[in-house]
């Protein structure tokens, strides 16, 4: 899953990005409202962490523009001020949650995961593809009740396929979910990670099939027959 962090405090930004990446989130980070507005117009995210006080365009205006475009991405507002007026303004503009700085890392992670669960609706418990299980609370994969040990980008690709189980996922979509703004996107890298994932799933009834020229699809093995 891919998140956008909008935060002008460089030290806090670095800490939050590292925290989220350690949890297998792909994370983009921008330091001001103008750039956030540009990125949100061009990119798709699973959730946005948005500071209220930003240089230039503030977080409330970024949020307001986002909602006027009809984008329903979950937004967690971050602020150093715990005033009722700030809370009311944020929720009125379309925020989904609100967290006051300084915050505990565990609370931040819990709130981000809760936002994504609420957005996903019918995957509140988890997803199953044959003997492969995805547990939404922990974002963990299990094969026959045994944790499937994946590297970060392997996890991201399998998660993207699992959340769109039974549907064709283009290589471009996988690249967008895996690479951050600072990365150099590589279509060839997707093929390498798909190859690794097939090795992980070699004993599973869940399989990844290549649809030449279209992308990839995750289905139970029986569905391909």
UniProtKB/TrEMBL annotation:
Keywords: DNA-binding, Phosphoprotein, Transcription, Transcription regulation, Two-component regulatory system. The modification 4-aspartylphosphate is found at residue 51. It comes from the Bacteria. Residues 124-220 bind DNA. This is Transcriptional regulator. Residues 2-116 form the Response regulatory domain. One of its GO terms (biological process) is regulation of DNA-templated transcription. GO terms for molecular function: phosphorelay response regulator activity; transcription cis-regulatory region binding. GO terms for cellular component: cytosol; protein-DNA complex. SMART domains: REC, Trans_reg_C. Residues 124-220 form the OmpR/PhoB-type domain.
